[in-house]
Amino acid sequence: MRAARAGEVPSRACSEPPPRRDDLRDPRTRAVATRTRIGRSLVALAAVAVLPPVAAARPASADPAPYLDARLPVPKRVQDLLGRMTLEEKGGQMAQAERSAVDGDRDRITTLGLGSLLSGGGSVPAENTAKGWADMVDAYQSKALATRLKIPLLYGVDSVHGHNNLVGATVFPHNLAMGATRNPDLVRREERITAIETRATGPQWVFAPCVCVVRDLRWGRAYESFGEDPRLVVDMETRIEGFQGRNRRDMAGPERVLATAKHFAGDGDTKFGSSRTGTYTVDQGVTVTDRRTFDRIDLAPYVTAVRKYRVGSIMPSFSSVDWTEDGVGNPVKMSAHRELLTDVLKGRIGFDGFLISDWEAVHQLPGDYATQVRTAVNAGMDMFMEPFSAPRFVEALLGEVKAGRVATSRIDDAVARILTAKFELGLFEHPYTDRRLAGTIGSPEHRAVARRAVAESQVLLKNSANALPLKRNVRIYVAGVNADDVGNQAGGWTVSWQGSSGPIIPGTTILDGIRQHSSDVTYSADASAPTSGSDAGVVVVGEKPYAEGVGDVGNGHTLNLSDADKANIDTVCGAIGTCVVLDVAGRPQIVTDRLAKADAFVMSWLPGSEGAGVADVLFGDRPFTGRLPVSWPRTEAQEPINVGDRDYRPLFRYGYGLTTDPRR
Questions:
Q1: Which keywords fit this entry according to its UniProt record (predicted)?
Q2: Among this protein's residues, is 343 annotated catalytic?
Q3: Residue 593 belongs to domain with CATH number
Q4: pLDDT of residue 592
Q5: Active-site choice (26, 283, 485, 548)
């Protein structure tokens, strides 16, 4: 099917059901009453409707407006368009709604002049295919183009390890695994593929990469970080180039998307027990630090993201910062932190893109809603992710401007930054989805890159008597649920926000990969099948999927192995001469009391859709080359432990990893 051209309305406007509320990106417990929120939005929309109509600005000229002239420099186009906009139109550009909030009546996009929509985790079209996505996004876009100035919509999605909301997309290992590869070129290539697969389905903007520095493995987002050392995170920021290209001019093509560096700043460095969000313990907590340490650990990746890669958008964190210089006890939420958002990020560092708030993040600020909006916009926030409150947001924002509590110059600055991104993405010239590359989604070529990433991420931590690599066609006994569960090995942020167990995406499990190398494989999830006659045992332990603070240790989670995993190790390693243990998890687990029972121990991370890449190193098709991107604790109580600590005695040191590469 050819891509729709500017001015055309797509032939089908699919009717998607709203996502289950537990799948959306609500930062609290996700107990969001979606229908109630939409109802409130309708009430607020009615209030906004009494404002002066959007079309009541200057009459249209017979000549094309300069902002529509692609030959002009982007700053001139932005200046011309900004001068034509009413305050109401500017407010609409600063609002981002969840697509389910407008899906019942898409004319709301036109009425409010919305600048952006997003798909939260699990918010997908009824037909979760490339075509279903593109039809959905184009239908929304047609409503944005029906506005007076025809400003196109910017559509955002969480493509955090591939276009992971789309069933059939290539799903890559999560970031912590990619940190173990120490291969910036591979990371760049991975995100080029993610950009292609995402943009070919409609979205032009991804909420990635996470450039946080994880300093406590009890954090439920640990796997979203590249590692505990800011230098490693900086090295892996080639991911931004993979998304956007070498310069922003590249973003207008069908192979690129707008990237988002997140979560500014310090979200991987929050103190255990400091979170005040629901039952979370670490996520959305408080970073207690001095400014010098904050610059060195937490801020450093953003300097590179801005100055080297010119990242187009940045998402401030839910977390807070409490400076020790003025005494502990007065933390400031990042969404309200003018010093860091405006003075440091936009001023000292020189960020010229736009800031997008996290999911309803401003609702966590003190005061009533108008105060929350005023505080955040004056701190430097440019676009507000208000999934079910966009009309209310616009109304509050306009009220604050008219009351003189928010300067029009601040509004103009925010809108100019947003419009710049839209011009650089080429949306004014090509607003609808370019579907020419949709056929490459999940292609063998793309999956081959993911399989290589899996292989390079494997970290060999123990290998007694050269237990690995295994010989081909020996009799293999495989135990553990995670050996044959593609949902578990993909982890959170896969099809839905939290992810789920089971065959939720196409791909190969670790067991599938082992069977590609041996014709004699016995599989028993609970190690209840007889082990006699087996030459080698492979026990796959690990975690089930989780995301964000839901996965915080102390919030129903632990770093310890489950009793079932311990029993499987005891059974298999006690009965078979050669025993290999693989850990499929989003972070290191406590294996101190079981390590002696295994001949070989491998950290396999969350490999994504291509579990066969694990078997590639088990059987020697590829060598083990991965190195730990984090320090491995002896006990859960040892956290936080990081390289450079005064009393540094981990089970495995940061950077540790055995190799089977004869060249090393």
A1: Glycosidase, Hydrolase, Signal
A2: no
A3: 3.40.50.1700
A4: 98
A5: 548
